[in-house]
Amino acid sequence: MNFLGRTWIGEWLAGLGRIAVLSRDAIASSLTFKFSRRDLLYQIYFIGIKSQSVVIITGAFTGMVLAAQTYFQFHKIKMDTATLAVVSVSMCSELGPVLTALMVAGRVGAAIAAELGTMRVTEQIDALRTLATHPIDYLVAPRLMASNIALPLLAIESMAVGIGASYLVGVFLLGIDPAYSWYNLLKYSHDSDVMIGLIKSIVYGGIIALIGCYKGLTCGVGAQGVGKATTEAVVYASITILITNFFLTMALEQLAVMLGV
Amino acid sequence: MIETRNLKKSFGTQPILEGVDLFIETGESAAIIGRSGGGKSVLLKHLIGLLHPDSGEVLVDGESIGRMNERQLLRIRKKFGMVFQGAALFDSMSVAENVAFGLRHETLTSGEIARRVAATLEMVDLPGTQKKNPAELSGGMRKRVGLARAIIYEPQIILYDEPTTGLDPIVSDSIDKLIIRVRDQLKVTSVVVTHDMRSASRVGTHVFMLHAKKMYAHGTPEEIFASKDPIVRQFIDGVADLKETQF
Predict the structure, then answer these.
(1) So what's the ipTM on this one?
(2) Residue in chain B nearest A34 by alpha carbon
(3) For residue range A137-152, what is the model confidence (pLDDT) as tens digits?
(4) Testing the interface with A: which of B41, B42, B78, B91 to mutate, by most A Cβ within 10 A?
(5) Residue-level pLDDT at A260
(6) Which of A154, B126, B131, B223 could, after both became Cys, cross-link B219 (CB 3.0–4.6 A)?
(7) How many whole angstroms separate alpha carbon B45 and alpha carbon B2?
């Protein structure tokens, strides 16, 4: 066991164990509302409202480029009016939630890790503990809850903006027939696509908040430690989102088929 | 009452404390002295459960806290206030919000909270600083805000981690006087970790000396300052071995 503990795989397994314990405690704290409403609202503002610009720009340009690329291929086989349907399904079940999560991971995950990391190296987290305040209740739970609330809303915004932008590009720039496009969009987009996107967003919100908090709370000493924690929070959250996305897609699509939705 | 029994702590392969025994009576003012890097702050953090011992026991009012989890410790920590070496003020909050933080578990009106914050800031000689940001404060002012934050909820025990380190002699003197004022007015048990001998002699009714990872000597300030023990003498007189000053 000692040998395992000294190897990188031992460290990795220990890290997984620590983040699992943090997740358990944070979820328990969130479900029992051990945090103040004010802290939750501030975090929703920081994670949700302040991420608007990046999410809107990402959603809009992704929808636009996806419409253009799809049109260029579909035009060759006279399927122009299916363009918006492809964009819609892609934005709802994949690109909306995933790109939103990746952008928020870069902005919010880094900020959470840097803030908590700085608090750790300046003994502010120890100060919290001496003031009979559990760091999970005060720091992690409101961020986790806020992230779980904000991410689905941001993803919906991204989906709507992406589809809207693709409509503008398709109809006004590329000259696709608007009536048939709209008909096909509604025909091939299902509630399940939006539901899959929303479920994914809730999971990604949890990943961003928990990895950001974990990296901040366990960061090394000094400015270098905070910098490393910040970088790792973004990288690990992004990779985890991409890996999780594959398995979630497979599981949720299967579930949708089983439920017949 | 605070007690440690055969307290041992290592970080990695580096032993820090090797069987420390300490007993501080309720209402007593204890100064823990010792060389820099000697484990004084580590010992202090064990007393409030910020660190857990590898072996041995930490007892607060007869209750062993060494094996308690973070949530169980919250109840014990309500008895404590702690002043950190770097003040550890919450830099995203104003002075008033920092000081009022300890009252967040109590059901008080905002007017009552504001009144208690003002009274506590008055006690630490910082009236009217409520709206300032911690970044606008000097080192001595930050320590005093840290002290105000630690005493506002009237704890039974206050821990001070190097309260005068990095301050000029006049500000150090004012901090010492504040520690004595808080001790006498609030009737609290004080534990002051310091390597400032002048401060230790003034604020401590009992002095403990940590040396070679163990509690080496203890007694009243008069007894410690009159000690003929060469290790204690060397520390009190501030005499370095030549090999220790080579750089």
Answers:
(1) 0.91
(2) B105
(3) 999 999 999 999 999 9
(4) B91
(5) 82
(6) B223
(7) 13
